[in-house]
Amino acid sequence: MLRMKRWILIWILSNLTVASMEAQDPYLEGIARLQEGDLNKAGQLFEKVIETGKSSSDLYLKFGEVHFLNGDFTESAIMAEKANGLSEGMGNYLIARCRAMEGRPSDAVIYLERHMNSGHKLARHEILLDPAFSGIE
After folding, report:
1. Distance CA 134, CA 62 (A)
2. Is the dihedral of CA 116, 121, 125, 126 positive or negative?
3. What is the pTM of this model?
4. Measured between alpha carbons, how far is 24 from 30 in angstroms, rounded to an integer?
5. What are phi and psi of 134, to 5 degrees?
6. Residue 122 carries which DSSP code?
7. What b/e sequence results for 68-78 when a residue is b if at least 16 CB atoms lie within 10 Å of its CB, and e otherwise?
8. How far is 61 from 67, CA to CA, in rounded Å?
């Protein structure tokens, strides 16, 4: 009897482990890693999702954020443009931040204006507090 209970317990635990592994979503895990500051792991997970063909504007924006935080403003802007291609105006704010960090204030302003005219605009105080724009008057 005890042996049978053990087998049942092992079977239940193995099924729970498999179900848990199947339930993991690389996109959601990437967001968690991004929030924890594990940029390399977040980038790997976002890239994994893109490779499966399940890309979205949100995914490209998060992947762009990873590149931005790593200081790769060119790649960050490319990801933001891809987000714009799937959801008009969604990546304009990130592109503006990239241009500001690259020392291109006039381009940053153009993208900020586009951002403010989009359906994705942030509150003015959030933009004013963004360190990326501290050098722009």
Report:
1. 23
2. negative
3. 0.81
4. 11
5. -65, -25
6. P
7. beeebbebbbb
8. 10
What is the C-alpha separation between 69 and 91, in angstroms, rounded? 15
Helix (H, G, I), strand (E, B) or coil at 5: helix
User: Looking at residue 136, what is its pLDDT?
Assistant: 79
The Cα–Cα gap between 26 and 45 comes to 5
**Predicted pLDDT of residue 8:** 63
Instruction: Indicate the residue type of 85.
Output: G
Helix, strand, or coil here: 105?
helix
How many whole angstroms from its chain centre is CA 12? 35
Question: Is 50 within 8 Å of 63 (Cβ atoms)?
Answer: yes
For residues 85 and 53, the answer to whether their CB atoms sit within 8 Å is: no
**Which pLDDT score, from 0 to 100, does residue 16 have?**
56
